[in-house]
């Protein structure tokens, strides 16, 4: 039987084989449970006339549901100053609570009647990216939601993917979910925390879910936002570029340390791998990948997030047309089974470290049920590479994340070399009698 100490020694031996190996590992030892996994839904409840079947609850485990792009925005629940419509939000919260799943509710997206800029175009019509004209309307909204769902919504994300055009030159004229100032966002954080303290003190307030650059997070924290939030939210979208994801995790942690909140949990509240089918136009800078490739990349990034110490990883989304695991007819994509396998590997696992070197396979070592394992892949998305095991070890099992894609060419049991393909594989080992 291999112990966690043996895993460390395996990593050392592997690093002697590979020059200039970078290592990532959690800052604190932990055993992964369903609380690491989060999900989004679009169609758990259909809107009238929607051409799709209602989404079934996923077959895999997750501890959190994030409500965004679920038609539960501020503009949805309060369409007029004295009118409230909680029916859809009730449905999502009740479904999650009944299954023991915690709810992360993303605040914001200002109604047209409350917006400071009613003529400004936004992602959902007009006015929704502006701060409220009167902060008392914001206060009333946060109070109404937190009072209604006291003890049933555990966590609130302050806003989705804000930009700060008044403060950052590159944000001017850019499409955004928020177009106000840093100062106004911090004021909304102050009010939200004050209301939560009054209505639901145990509720966690997260920072806005920032994306594509840490400067906005830095400005928010430095301007006083750090005083009101208990966790940092970031969206680690990286496409097929795993190196970018890891660099962003390091950059976010550096900003957190700079602002005195290094000990706060870091939540990845939104990430997905988009697949554009043949014939669909590609956005600029996006590569066309197959459903199998997308499933493999999803597993690789979930594994990296766990080993890099992310507190939560919310996949976007179970039923999204491009990044989802099920389509509008109920047909499953390969990513559904890949998620099931990733959870089989990670639930109950204690991550140790990943060995990463440009141009070489990625090897992540850990322990589960008092036995060592490795998750191995070739990040270059083509070809197979042998990875020798330390002397005295041999493979007892190998399982690929996407069984229908990039099959292994070796007989895994009894082998003394792992095979790294773009399709991540989970290996277990035993010692060879000397």
Entry keywords:
single chain; 434 residues; alpha/beta; Immunoglobulin-like; TIM Barrel; six-stranded antiparallel β-sheet; 9 helices; 18 strands
Q: Strand order within the widest sheet?
A: 2-3-4-7-8-9-10-11
CATH class of the largest domain: Alpha Beta
**CATH topology of the largest domain, what is it called?**
TIM Barrel
Mean pLDDT equals 91
Distance linking N and C termini = 15 Å
* Unreliable residue runs: 1-19
Order of helices and strands: HEEEHHEEEHEHEHEHEHEHEEEEEEE
For the record, the CATH architecture of the largest domain stands as Alpha-Beta Barrel
| CATH superfamily (homologous) name of the largest domain | Glycosidases
| Shape label | globular
Specify the oligomeric state. single chain
Structural class: alpha/beta
**Strand coverage percent:** 15-25%
Largest sheet: 8 strands, parallel, barrel
Q: How many structural domains can be distinguished in the coordinates?
A: 2
Give a description of the structure.
The chain is α/β, with parallel strands linked by helices. It folds into 2 domains: 4-10 and 357-431, Sandwich (Immunoglobulin-like), CATH 2.60.40.1180; 33-351, Glycosidases (TIM Barrel). Helix content is 27%, strand content 21%. The chain has 9 helices and 18 strands. β8 (204-211), α6 and β9 form a beta-alpha-beta unit. α5 packs across α6 (215-222). It starts with a helix and ends with a strand.
Give a concise summary.
The protein is of the alpha/beta class and 434 residues long. The chain is 27% helix and 21% strand.
């Amino acid at each position: 039987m291999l112990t966690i100490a043996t895993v460390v020694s395996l990593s050392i031996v592997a690093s002697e084989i590979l020059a200039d190996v970078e290592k990532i590992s959690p800052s604190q030892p932990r055993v992964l449970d369903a609380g690491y996994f989060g999900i989004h839904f679009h169609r758990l409840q259909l809107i009238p006339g929607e051409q799709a079947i209602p989404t079934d609850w996923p077959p895999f485990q997750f501890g959190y549901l994030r409500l965004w792009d679920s038609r539960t925005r501020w503009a949805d629940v309060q369409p007029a100053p004295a009118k409230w419509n909680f029916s859809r939000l009730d449905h999502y919260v009740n479904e999650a609570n009944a299954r023991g799943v915690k709810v992360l509710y993303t605040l914001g997206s200002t109604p047209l009647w409350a917006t400071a800029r009613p003529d400004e175009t936004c992602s959902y019509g007009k006015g929704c990216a502006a701060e409220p004209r009167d902060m008392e309307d914001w206060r009333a909204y946060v109070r109404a939601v937190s009072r209604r769902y006291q003890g049933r919504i555990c966590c609130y994300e302050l806003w989705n993917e804000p930009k700060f055009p008044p403060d950052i030159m590159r944000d001017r004229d850019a499409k955004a979910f928020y177009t106000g100032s840093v100062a106004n966002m911090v004021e909304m954080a102050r009010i939200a925390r004050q209301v939560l303290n009054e209505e639901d003190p145990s509720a966690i307030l997260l920072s806005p879910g920032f994306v594509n650059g840490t400067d906005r997070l830095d400005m928010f924290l430095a301007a006083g936002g750090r005083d009101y939030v208990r966790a940092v939210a970031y969206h680690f979208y990286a496409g097929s570029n795993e190196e970018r994801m890891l660099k962003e995790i390091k950059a976010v942690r550096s900003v957190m340390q700079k602002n005195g909140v290094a000990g706060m949990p870091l939540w990845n509240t939104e990430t997905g791998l988009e697949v554009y089918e043949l014939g669909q136009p590609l956005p600029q800078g996006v590569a066309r990948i197959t459903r199998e490739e997308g499933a493999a990349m999803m597993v690789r990034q979930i594994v990296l997030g766990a080993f890099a110490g992310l507190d939560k990883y919310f996949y976007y989304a179970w039923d999204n047309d491009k990044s989802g695991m099920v389509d509008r007819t109920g047909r499953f994509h390969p990513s559904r089974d890949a998620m099931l396998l990733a959870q089989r590997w990670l639930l109950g696992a204690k991550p140790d470290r990943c060995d990463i070197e440009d141009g070489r396979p990625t090897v992540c070592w850990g322990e589960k049920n008092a036995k060592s394992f490795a998750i191995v892949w070739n990040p270059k998305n083509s070809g197979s590479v042998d990875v020798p095991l330390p002397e005295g070890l041999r493979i007892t099992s190998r399982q690929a994340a996407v069984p229908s894609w990039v099959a292994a060419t070796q007989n895994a049991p009894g082998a003394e070399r792992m095979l790294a393909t773009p399709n991540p594989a989970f290996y277990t080992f035993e010692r060879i009698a000397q």
